[in-house]
Amino acid sequence: MPETVELLKQNLTIDPDLRNFINFALESVSELGGNIFAASIASLELIEKLRNAGVTAGRPVSVSLLLQGKQLLVLWDKQGQFKIATLPELPHQETIAQLCLHLRNSTASADPEILLQRNAEMERHFDKARARAEQEMEMLQQALKTRQHELMEVVHQAETDALTGLLNRRAFDERLKQTFLHTMRQRNSPLSLLFLDLDHFKKINDEFGHQVGDEHLNKTADILRKIIREDVDLAFRFGGDEFAVVLFADYPLACDKARQVLKSLDNKISIGIATINQDTQDDLTLEEFIRRADNALYEAKHRGRGQVVSHFCMSQSKRQCQFLRTEMTN
């Protein structure tokens, strides 16, 4: 393979850079004994190719003038290649060395006017690139917001009961676990869990139809929304006639809320309550907390329905726990 010598390497940014490089290339053809006329014609095509590659657009483009055997080549950005001349014979090494020195000296100092133009063009290019980047960033942020909104909507739909609009069982499992662990860890606020079950709901469906049954379920959901604090407490529908409420409240307030539900539904609902506070034993588990509320609901139904039964636990130490039970009826 013929030896390759790099005669000249420049970063071309503006049109004067390109003209200077072409002049250096043609001068090299002449010094090495090539056909300057043919090279001048070829340089017109070379100028077009370099401009298409981005030269003079404000973005520096690396361009090299190479001597490979008898061929004088121009390479740019490690992709483009153009033969500007074929020499009649291999030039002497001394001639090549003198040419390299001449080209290096010629490009060592640049015309101040060219430098000013180059800087202005590069500044313009960078300004355009920055504006384009800011626009693309804004578009990405907008797309991200849209995607986040879509994901939130998907999550909302997945956690919402289609009939009543309350949170569903899936949301209950996730939200209760989070609130329970936080309450047991921080011990700075009480937490009450209410399980609610409509009394004789199957009879309503059988006698009056599912449409009336659905209206009764929606009425119950509306009542639960009224007794809780928006964006604080949580109301759920498990499915069928089963509901749950998570209150960031102590035992007396939970009982008061339960009374309001009883009154609004004419005592046709059974409610079980479990409450934890700073006196609850440290080893209470989420499963046990749920079991206590569920047992309280079962006992309310067992005692004749239409009432509230509450279980709460207090401890004198981490190993000792007292259970107190309260029943409320209208």
User: What is the CATH topology descriptor of the largest domain?
Assistant: Alpha-Beta Plaits
The sequence of SSEs as H and E is EHHEEEHHHEHHEEHEHEE
As residue ranges, the low-confidence spans are 315-330
Q: Can you name the CATH architecture of the largest domain?
A: 2-Layer Sandwich
Integer count of domains: 2
Largest sheet: 6 strands, mixed
Q: What's the level 1 CATH class of the largest domain?
A: Alpha Beta
User: How many β-strands, per DSSP?
Assistant: 10
Estimated radius of gyration:
42 Å
- CATH homologous superfamily designation of the largest domain: Reverse transcriptase/Diguanylate cyclase domain
> If you average the pLDDT, what whole number results?
84
Helical percent range? 40-55%
Within the largest sheet, what's the order of strands? 6-7-5-8-9-10
Number of H/I helices: 9
Beta-strand residue percentage: 15-25%
Distance between the termini: 105 Å
Q: In one word, what is the shape?
A: rod-shaped
Fold and architecture overview:
The chain is α+β, with helices and mostly antiparallel strands and 330 residues long. It has two domains: 4-109, no CATH class; 169-328, Reverse transcriptase/Diguanylate cyclase domain (Alpha-Beta Plaits, 2-Layer Sandwich). The protein is 52% helix and 22% strand. It has helices spanning 15-31, 36-52, 93-108, 112-158, 169-186, 201-208, 210-227, 251-264, 286-302, and strands at residues 4-12, 61-68, 71-76, 80-86, 191-198, 234-239, 242-247, 269-276, 308-314, 322-328. The strands form two sheets. The protein has a six-stranded mixed beta sheet with strand order 6-7-5-8-9-10, sandwiched between helices. It has a four-stranded antiparallel beta sheet with strand order 1-2-3-4. Helix 1 packs antiparallel against helix 2 (36-52).
